[in-house]
């Protein structure tokens, strides 16, 4: 290992994997990302980022790009009923806008920060082996099985993480949260402008965020007892469920190409006992997959990436640096994961009584309480980089 940095393998080229690769390269590390997909395509829909994630992106040196591909959205503080009434309205000065973007746009700018040779597509990690001195990823390519060695291996391979299962064979399997989610993006300029809002129905929650190029990202989450429900025509199913909700919801659905609508079961992970073992660390959904109800999964992955890159900067004792990362990240990310599991137990309840209480309380107490709750979640700031091995005063 050189004084500047060593060698790192990152399993998974999602937002978490690319972000930590960028952070490590800035710290002088030589990084290779192994991504299962054969190519990086325009995938996914939209998502939103809270201030904690933007600060993490700044710490990683990609904050400007994140802002440049994003559009402010008021959906965090504008809550409506299916008939169109307001439970809460975004108030400038009190409420913080989130930043929404298309996944493909953010992915493209993150990839742009890495040299082509640092990202290997069509490389599916199938196992991890480590000794005191080195860690090895075994991965499958179209040309056969390969092995790569490094000083550290980061498992950023999502909720079904092979790195997690390989290094922590007893780790729990993902848990279905009895939630089904549809997502879509409108054609550019078809419904515009849209400020961003959420609409709470009984057992169903809709949200919409403006995106760049005058597109709108929308999602619908509903209660679903069993995983695996699939529909021939997703858009028709969404219309069937909420087509009579307030405008612009029907307009947004009409402006969405039917073939592009995504439908997924929502799983999360029970708590892990550690995110680090020797020279292997987990990050993002591989470590703490959570429901999307706080819109924090990718935000937490960016926080992880900022802290992991900071802990490995100048580190000579890799296991000790990864143990510090685990100590710094596990309590916070597990708290957010726990909150994201609890939230839909009330907010997606199908009980009429719970729905009435929830909407009435939100109307009465609304903005102030929600703003304080969000502030606690979003208040995170990255640490000031320190030189490891030196005691701070
Ligand atoms: C409906 C929905 C809405 C959401 N909205 C938001 C939001 O608004 N804000 C927010 O912050 N978060 C949101 N999230 C959460 C967010 O999508 C995830 O937390 C985030 O994508 C996690 O990033 P990641 O890089 O850890 O994992 P992933 O995005 O899952 O990336 C993992 C990568 O690893 C690759 N991979 C998998 N296995 C292997 C292997 N064996 N070898 C090599 N590569 C492999 C995959 O192909 C993928 O590219 C939402 C999630 C859902 C489901």
From TrEMBL:
<dbReference type="InterPro" id="IPR002938">
    <property type="entry name" value="FAD-bd"/>
</dbReference>
<keyword id="KW-0503">Monooxygenase</keyword>
<protein>
    <submittedName>
        <fullName>FAD-dependent monooxygenase</fullName>
    </submittedName>
</protein>
<dbReference type="InterPro" id="IPR050493">
    <property type="entry name" value="FAD-dep_Monooxygenase_BioMet"/>
</dbReference>
<dbReference type="InterPro" id="IPR036188">
    <property type="entry name" value="FAD/NAD-bd_sf"/>
</dbReference>
<keyword id="KW-0274">FAD</keyword>
<dbReference type="GO" id="GO:0004497">
    <property type="term" value="F:monooxygenase activity"/>
</dbReference>
<feature type="domain" description="FAD-binding">
    <location>
        <begin position="8"/>
        <end position="337"/>
    </location>
</feature>
<dbReference type="Pfam" id="PF01494">
    <property type="entry name" value="FAD_binding_3"/>
</dbReference>
<keyword id="KW-0560">Oxidoreductase</keyword>
<keyword id="KW-0285">Flavoprotein</keyword>
